[in-house]
Amino acid sequence: MAEDGSLANVICKRIAFLNDRCPREKRRKIPALAGAFGRFRHHSETDTKTFSRHLRSDVKPKSQSILRWKIGSKPVRCVDEFAIEEPLEIRVDNQPVSVTMRTPGHDDELATGFLVTEGLIKKRSDVLKIQPYPRNKEKNVINLFLAPDVAVDFKQLTRHVFASSSCGLCGKATIESVHQHFPKIKSKVSVAAKTILGLPGKLRGAQETFDRTGGLHAAAIFDLDGNLIVLREDVGRHNAVDKVLGHSFLKGIFPLDQHILMVSGRTSFEIVQKALAARIGIICAVSAPSSLAVEFALESGQTLVGFLREERMNVYSHSKRIKFT
């Protein structure tokens, strides 16, 4: 049984707090969530620790009192929570290479994932040390120190130094130039359609901060049996992907050619390109892909799934990897 201070009890207490502080129309969504975590309480302490590892965040959401109003009713005071957004400067051997807006937490994974998907590092031993920049008291600068034999060609970067976390980056390289750095995938892995249908529920069930703020994107890595390996949340969908890829790289789970990438929103060209850098052949999303994402997946040998919800899906490329029978 989980202890009183376990993650499950903390979450359930938080739900009770929200029930007391928020208006009736918002409460309707809470009982089902409370029931789910109530059932989770009966899992073993080992399961609790595993669940916590996937959800843990370094920074809590900010909260403040707001005035909530609905037509036909009186304004009601309620405490609401907001996803934090702050800049992060990524440095390599003290040289700035990128600035992105992100949700603080797991910055080492975000920076590592960025370097992986830009083709600057290939193996775990390429990274000697990761630490915050000591002169930045806000902890919004992170420095990666690479092995002496890693030749860094900053012109190789496929995006501008200054980026927007909400809409991606401008000036992307062409599909052909990306393939010069990351070859097409020829993997013959397959996964059952029923397994894929189960991914959105598992993703949503592990989005702790989204439940509190409603303002974060999520990315997750699953194995081919549908088991959750890691989930990360961020105000930027691309940052969330960088974080799960960086986590896998730092933990030695790389390349990810036997895994699935799942994202909570739409699929852009950049997300599919990041998956290619990690050698992921199956990408799933709750919402629609862009036209360039579909074109890139087709030419890169990747299976791209969209509108994965309510027991249905659209498969836009290389559908042979999905077993429908």
- Rg for CA atoms: 20 Å
Number of helices, counting only DSSP H or I runs of 4 residues or more: 12
Terminal CA distance: 39 Å
Order of helices and strands: HHHHEEEEHEEHEHHHEEHEHEHEEE
Number-wise, the strands total 14
What features would you highlight for this structure?
25% strand; alpha/beta; 14 strands; 325 residues; 4-stranded mixed beta sheet
Secondary structure layout plus pairing:
Layout: H1 7-21, H2 24-27, H3 30-40, H4 45-55, E1 62-68, E2 76-82, E3 86-92, E4 95-102, H5 107-117, E5 127-132, E6 141-146, H6 175-181, E7 191-192, H7 193-197, H8 199-205, H9 208-213, E8 217-223, E9 228-234, H10 237-250, E10 259-263, H11 269-277, E11 282-285, H12 291-300, E12 303-309, E13 312-317, E14 322-323
Parallel strand pairs: 3-6, 7-14, 10-11, 11-12
Antiparallel strand pairs: 1-2, 3-4, 5-6, 8-9, 8-10, 12-13
Helix pairs in contact: 1-3, 5-10, 10-11, 11-12
